[in-house]
Amino acid sequence: MNIDVSTIFQIAGIGIIVAMIHTVLKQMNKEDMAHWVTVIGFVVVLFMVVRLLNDLFQEIKTIFLFQ
Amino acid sequence: MDILQIVGIGLLTAILILVIREQKPMFAFLLATFFGIAVFLALIGKIGGVVSMIEELADRSGIQSVYLKTMLKIIGIAYIAEFGAQIVRDAGLDSIASKIEFAGKMLILVMAVPIISIIIETVLGLLPAGGGA
Lengths: 67, 133
Known about the structure:
The structure holds two protein chains of two kinds.
Chain A: H1 5-27, H2 31-63
Chain B: H1 2-23, H2 25-61, H3 65-90, H4 94-126
Helix pairs in contact in B: 1-2, 2-3, 3-4
Keywords (chain A): Membrane, Transmembrane, Transmembrane helix
InterPro entries (chain A): Spore_III_AC, Spore_III_AC/AD
Protein name (chain A): Stage III sporulation protein AC
């Protein structure tokens, strides 16, 4: 019974920072760079979520006898 | 107190999502998904305790293990389908969410077929043989 709050803050922080970098790069007329930053940030966060989802599915498999 | 912890983290996550949704809706969606998974993962240990108690009870009362396995699988399918449908519905895709729920219902029905057939056979066995009079 322990939720890792730090990861939630991490995801929110990545989102805010990526939004900031996106705005700055857009102001500097580098649209393509801005889009790449968004995509890379999204992939990083997606990895965190997918790893946790894998844990969840393994737990459900073991508890509900899905072997 | 676990419930205080979960309510606090839920409020915190809601505020963070409201902040991020203005800039990047994708990150807000991933944050909501992450919170859902984390709560599920935190509670699944307790569900495991309940399941093991049910198993012990079934062992003691001598129920065939096929019934219990099927029931647990059905509960698991229901949990997963509900969870996935809720997350997809959060993203605003109601049609895909209802398809997930439909698939869950169908798979539960398929799992229940052996039990239904056993029930029908039992009822047929109770009826008087011959069936003429």
